[in-house]
């Protein structure tokens, strides 16, 4: 095809509607995304596509030219246009079942992270900055400014700063988890810890068990690993053991990813009897358990930990400081069986190199600061008060908690009258309120009538006005 | 087998040598690691293994018991011991061809990171802390201690701190790379940036091109992604273009991962003509290029950047501050085509969640500190002096540079008399000197006679004494 000739022929139309060009481009994009046009496939001729779309040939020419400039399609002289040889980059939303973006597991994260202070965020998963130990952080930073030059400039050793690992070892033993400092590896975050362990332990296509409901980012992360995500209904004392056993028989999962204490989103706590049964099943079926314990510091009385019963044999214990100390200075950790540490170090170096000592030094400084324990004590009280206030205000709207958690920041609530949470969340978003609709937490999509509230982010009365309106009350 | 009976029979030996138990355990571990005992396989009977190893039965019993407690093997009542059913976790060293650990791509990283200050590290890939802008870092930390509470406590937005992205956009344009702030995403490090892009752009089994030699961690990282790593010989002006074209035809790689300016390990700089040819080939074969530009600030005169010629169409530009500012405060970045940013954000949140603002604020503070430019100017001079001194001292030992780089910290040198660098490095390590033998950088294992020296880490005269001895001089 002689492009110049076409351009000349249809020149008169070139000033025409940009919208048509965009529509044609969008149509091609969708065909490629939906694999109706596979990589390398020939696009419809300009004449034919113009007829199909009911637009002029020059519109199609311009659309094809612009798509070619973007690299999505390629022109071959005398032959036409072809879909780029490169297959499309990974799209997480294409790896899972196609979901409405409002119940996509990434929705709440992105709304919480991307909206500014003009938004209220009862759906967000962390504390407001004003609830964090600001004074200790400032003292920690001033102390760092006087640290020796290697703390300021150098890489940390692969396992991370030893004095912090020693402190973590002592803290874990308070929860009954026995982990020597050389079984602890620092990471950039709890999420990076889980990601590293998934890389270490699973292959694409492996089955992984999660709770239903579970933290939505577990779903997003496992999707990035191309795991087959299998969910087990969660009860107020942990996963339903009979259904857990059935899932093990049917899917033979490699991993189970959970929170034992202050489960996200329900706030529930594993009971000792469920813990014991899970570990027996894990033993029987060769299952590894990743226990994500990032809410540990919120607890009033320590709940059972799988890693404590198991002694880090089949259980890997994970933590971070993003929820109780600071999300700004990134630091998480893995406690694992000793014979896995070498392999985890190799994998950490290859994919993230060594961490820096700076955030670890800062976390160490804050944890050792005399005021940290006091801060945590008052935080627990403040959360407990907010829990009572939030549940009372929600009750007035007919929104009722599934259980009343012992501690922590989450209330998992049922909406009244069979209302769909996704729709409510979308209407509230239009009023600058970010909510967390139940199905973002549910692999089985069975939590459409639920919503997670963060009691620390739910003080503003405008939330309840907007929620009532979004629920049509 | 009745374990109790065995225990009783051999009770007298139980106080015996722990070393023997350890030796037996080690032998089993090696058999399992080497797949002589596959997952699920039955271990030799206690009697037989005791004979093989020349130890008492009770020693084997204790070794098996301890391995069972570790979960490596399992006891089945009345039947004996079996290798754990769980397949082994990912071992990077098993994914690639089996190499001597001294030329394994992780060797230099681990030696550099794990050895303490009693080691001299001319093989290490970064500057000594005393060469870094310590004063600016301290001022930056003191300023952070006065920042508002959200900078101290909160997550950063998914793309990362906007003022830093704006500054990076301006800095990149000085190198001719046009990237708007919304095309720039901050990451925890340059390595994490490359890792994220590999997840985004390649599937296991995809071919990826690297230079030969190239930065050894490219090899380790691509191995973690199970890429087919294909290398192209590197010349003083970039990769050999004819062989590059041949590799494209033969392997149809999805990605090419390189440094354009101050190439690691050679210190070479891409020429404009090679850049132009590479981009034409990339266009023709649908290749994406990851240009890792972490040494940019060392340059005296700006070299051509692929991302500048290409306009971030087929090229993704990557940077970090670990080499020129601080490795302790982690911060890297990706500049990519706009239509990839959404997908990269989803992937970053799923696998690492949001970054914190703290390290980004610190980097921003230091870059804006009035002394940073001056620091960089004096750093360049200091490196240039060290380059001259190091090459003179190496020349005295018959160790000759492949080229004399225009700037930076690396000297890629040939050893005299066909000496094997791996052996020299191992002998030097015994003298507390970490060297970087050539084949850790070489996919084709054709750099056995080369070694990379970091001129900033090569001032101590003991290095040359030990090197001479290790070379048998």
TrEMBL record, chains A, B:
InterPro entries linked: Aminotransferase_I/II_large, HTH_trans_reg/aminotransferase, PyrdxlP-dep_Trfase, PyrdxlP-dep_Trfase_major, PyrdxlP-dep_Trfase_small, Tscrpt_reg_HTH_GntR, WH-like_DNA-bd_sf, WH_DNA-bd_sf
Domain HTH gntR-type: 18-86
Any Pfam family hit: GntR
Record keywords, A-Z: Aminotransferase, DNA-binding, Pyridoxal phosphate, Transcription, Transcription regulation, Transferase
SUPFAM superfamilies to which the protein is assigned, alphabetical: PLP-dependent transferases, Winged helix' DNA-binding domain
Residue ranges of the TM segments: none
Highest taxon of source: Bacteria
Family annotation (CDD domains): AAT_like (cd00609), WHTH_GntR (cd07377)
Molecular-function GO terms, alphabetical: DNA binding; DNA-binding transcription factor activity; pyridoxal phosphate binding; transaminase activity
PANTHER family: HTH-TYPE TRANSCRIPTIONAL REGULATORY PROTEIN GABR (PTHR46577), TRANSCRIPTIONAL REGULATORY PROTEIN (PTHR46577:SF2)
Family to which this protein belongs: In the C-terminal section; belongs to the class-I pyridoxal-phosphate-dependent aminotransferase family.
Official protein name in the record: Transcriptional regulator, GntR family with aminotransferase domain
Native organism: Methylocella silvestris (strain DSM 15510 / CIP 108128 / LMG 27833 / NCIMB 13906 / BL2)
């Amino acid at each position: 095809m002689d492009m110049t000739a076409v351009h000349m022929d249809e020149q008169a139309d070139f000033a025409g509607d940009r919208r048509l060009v965009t529509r044609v481009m969008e149509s091609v994009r969708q065909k490629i995304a939906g694999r109706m046009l596979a990589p390398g496939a020939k696009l419809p001729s300009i004449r034919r596509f113009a007829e199909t779309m009911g637009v002029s040939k020059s519109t199609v020419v311009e659309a094809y030219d612009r798509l070619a400039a973007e690299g999505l399609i390629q022109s071959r002289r005398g032959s036409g246009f072809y879909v780029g040889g490169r297959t499309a980059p990974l799209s997480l939303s294409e790896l899972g079942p196609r979901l409405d973006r409002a119940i996509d597991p990434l929705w709440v994260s992105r709304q919480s992270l991307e909206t500014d202070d003009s938004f209220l965020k009862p759906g967000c998963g962390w504390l407001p900055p004003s609830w964090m130990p600001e004074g200790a952080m400032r003292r920690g930073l001033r102390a760092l400014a006087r640290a020796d030059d290697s703390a300021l400039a150098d890489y940390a050793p692969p396992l991370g700063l030893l004095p912090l690992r020693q402190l973590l070892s002592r803290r874990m033993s308070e929860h009954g988890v026995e982990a020597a400092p050389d079984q602890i590896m620092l990471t950039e975050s709890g999420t990076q810890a889980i990601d590293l362990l998934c890389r270490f332990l699973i292959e694409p296509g492996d089955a992984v068990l999660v709770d239903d409901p579970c933290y939505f980012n577990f779903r997003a992360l496992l999707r990035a690993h191309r795991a087959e995500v299998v969910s087990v209904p969660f009860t107020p004392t942990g996963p339903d053991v009979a259904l857990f056993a059935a899932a093990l028989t049917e899917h033979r999962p490699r991993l189970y990813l959970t929170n034992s204490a202050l489960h996200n989103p329900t706030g529930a706590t594993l009971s000792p009897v469920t813990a014991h049964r899970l570990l027996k099943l894990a033993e029987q079926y060769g299952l590894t358990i990743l226990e994500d314990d990032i809410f540990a510091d919120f607890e009033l009385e320590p709940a059972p930990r799988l890693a404590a019963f198991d002694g880090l044999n089949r259980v890997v214990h994970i933590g971070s400081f993003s929820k109780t100390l600071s999300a700004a200075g990134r630091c998480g950790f893995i406690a694992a069986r000793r014979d896995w540490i070498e392999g985890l170090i190799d994998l950490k170096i290859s994919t993230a190199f060594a961490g820096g000592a700076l955030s670890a030094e800062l976390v160490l400084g804050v944890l050792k600061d005399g005021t940290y324990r006091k801060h945590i004590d008052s935080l627990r009280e403040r959360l407990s008060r907010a829990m009572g206030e939030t549940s009372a205000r929600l009750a007035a709207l007919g929104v009722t908690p599934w259980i009343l958690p012992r501690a922590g920041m989450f209330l998992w609530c049922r909406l009244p009258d069979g209302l769909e949470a996704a729709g409510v969340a979308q209407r509230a978003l239009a009023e600058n309120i970010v909510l967390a609709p139940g199905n973002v937490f549910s692999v089985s999509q069975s939590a459409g009538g639920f919503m997670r509230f963060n009691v620390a982010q739910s003080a503003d009365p405008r939330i309840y006005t907007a929620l009532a309106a979004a629920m049509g009350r």
